[in-house]
Design a protein that fits this description.
heterodimer; A: mainly alpha; 2 domains; three-stranded antiparallel sheet; 12% strand; B: mainly alpha; 4 helices
């Protein structure tokens, strides 16, 4: 099952990049097969009947929120960069996450990096270490609320 | 169509410009990494969307490129930030530093 899923994902990516030609189909299948044999033992995902629902939440809720945050964060950077003396109040803070899987944490860390004024530096267990341009809270709870609460809620539904 | 495409590409270029300015003007390493990451990610998005309007049949490939960028760009900057934290003296303007208890604070001085 895992092998089939990995093969399909790799094959589809190859075809999307290469185009729908018979030569490419054969070559893509061979390459996807070889790669599957190499990497399948490292991948770890569960497929269940809730997957379509999660995918829907991911696309309909997460992606718009993410894009909006990305635009906000760029305007934030623009404001700082274009002001005469750059307002910064930087520091490293810890936040806690409820998310369990590695992939969920990766998505959360990436989302945090692309939201206004924050950059995830490291993940240790359920703690994320964040560099923020403008330190607001003084406790872990406050910082978690400021930085990751929005994404945490959405990703909590997507990756149960 | 041509005009929409050009507008998106120009916006993308402007974001790249802002990113470059940010890397130049921000006061310390980590702020620079932040400015660079955010601006280049949205810049690339905007540029690629512009290309999609010019060549609508490329949209699947461009979608793939966007996925790879949005996965790889933040990871790269996280790794850069961690390496910078471990290798160099910390910037003097930090308000709090809760990373210190992970790396033992022996990277300073």
């Amino acid at each position: 099952m895992k092998y089939v899923a990995t093969f399909l994902v790799l094959f589809v990516i190859y075809i999307l990049l290469a185009g729908w030609v018979i030569d490419e189909l054969i070559l893509g299948a061979v390459i996807a097969l070889i790669l599957t044999l190499i990497i399948a033992k490292y991948v770890d995902y569960k497929i269940d009947y809730l997957l379509p629902y999660r995918l829907l939440v991911f696309i309909v809720v997460y992606i718009p929120v993410f894009l909006w945050q990305l635009v906000l964060s760029n305007l934030n950077v623009a404001r700082r960069v274009l002001s005469i003396d750059i307002p910064v109040n930087p520091g490293f803070v810890k936040i806690k996450t409820e998310l369990k899987g590695d992939f969920a944490k990766l998505i959360l860390a990436n989302s945090i990096t692309l939201t206004p004024g924050t950059l995830s530096v490291d993940v240790k267990g359920d703690t994320l270490y964040i560099h923020t341009i403008d330190v607001k809270g003084s406790s872990i709870e406050e910082n978690t609320e400021h930085i990751s609460a929005v994404f945490e809620r959405i990703l909590g539904v997507v990756f149960k | 169509m041509e005009i929409v495409s050009t507008v998106f590409m120009i916006i993308g270029g402007l974001f790249y410009l802002l990113g470059g300015l940010g890397i130049l003007r921000m006061p310390d390493t980590f702020d620079r990494i932040q400015a660079g990451t955010k601006a280049t990610t949205l810049g690339a998005f905007s540029l690629l969307i512009g290309i999609t309007f010019a060549h609508p049949d490329w949209w699947l490939k461009i979608l793939l490129i966007i996925i790879f960028i949005v996965l790889a760009n933040p990871i790269g900057s996280s790794v850069l930030a961690k390496a910078a934290y471990l290798s160099f003296e910390k910037p003097s303007n930090l308000v709090t530093d809760e990373l210190e208890d992970v790396f033992g604070g022996d990277t300073n001085d």
